[in-house]
Amino acid sequence: MAGRKQGAAATARPAGFGDKQLRSLGRRLRQLREARNWSLKKMALESGISIAAIQKIEVGEANPSLLTVLAMTEVLGEPVDRLIEASRELDRAVNVVRGTLPTRAQAAVALVTDLDSPQMEAHLIPVDSKERFDLRGHGVAGAAFAYVLDGTVAIDQGGDSTPRVLRAGDAVHLNADVALGMTGQLARRSHVLCLADRRDPNDRAEPK
């Protein structure tokens, strides 16, 4: 697109379009540019937008005008409505929860979020010395992944199964129909982070 280079003139934001969405929009534009193996200079030549303006847009520091966005999406082959919708999807797909992971939990803690349809759940589990913690008996259902954050635990599948010792940094995957118990092996309390699948087994895609 030939013509005089333009800056990223500010414009009114669409409803529900905040700083997070601007950063998401910028990341998407950068992904599209890099997918074409275009440098910033090439993008500037094709769109007629200055390199400085493109840089600010891509890092979410500028609120570009509609004409600027149209100029960029036209040369990148991305419909502007799809770009805007993808930027809004950020809030629907991701939920950041800060300060909810206790450094030393006193009891099993469910780390919940407010996603509309969560596909998994997380639990922070304290495992006391020589005391068996029944994972299934504390609301952890479905397939699960347990990661030892600190300490040492012995895991067993009940009955006469031989316990396996896991230390900090070790992990175990648990199928939906398998029981699991954990027993602390140190004088102090150990902590395990458990991620569990919340999907209905009938809704899970079969591997191809």
Detailed description of the structure:
- With 208 residues, the chain is of the alpha+beta class.
- The strands form two sheets. The protein has a five-stranded antiparallel sheet, with no helix packed on it. A four-stranded antiparallel sheet has the order 3-8-5-6, with no helix packed on it.
- The protein has helices spanning 19-35, 40-47, 51-58, 66-76, 80-93; strands spanning 109-111, 120-127, 132-134, 144-150, 152-156, 164-167, 171-174, 181-184, 190-197.
- The chain is elongated and about 70 Å long.
- 28% of the residues lie in helices and 22% in strands.
- It contains five helices and nine strands, in the order αααααβββββββββ.
- β5 and β6 form a beta hairpin.
- The protein folds into two domains: 19-93, Orthogonal Bundle (434 Repressor (Amino-terminal Domain)); 109-203, Jelly Rolls (Sandwich).
- The two termini are 45 Å apart.
In short, what is this structure?
With 208 residues, the chain is α+β, with helices and mostly antiparallel strands.
List the helices and strands and how they pair.
Blueprint lengths: L18 H17 L4 H8 L3 H8 L7 H11 L3 H14 L15 E3 L8 E8 L4 E3 L9 E7 L1 E5 L7 E4 L3 E4 L6 E4 L5 E8 L11
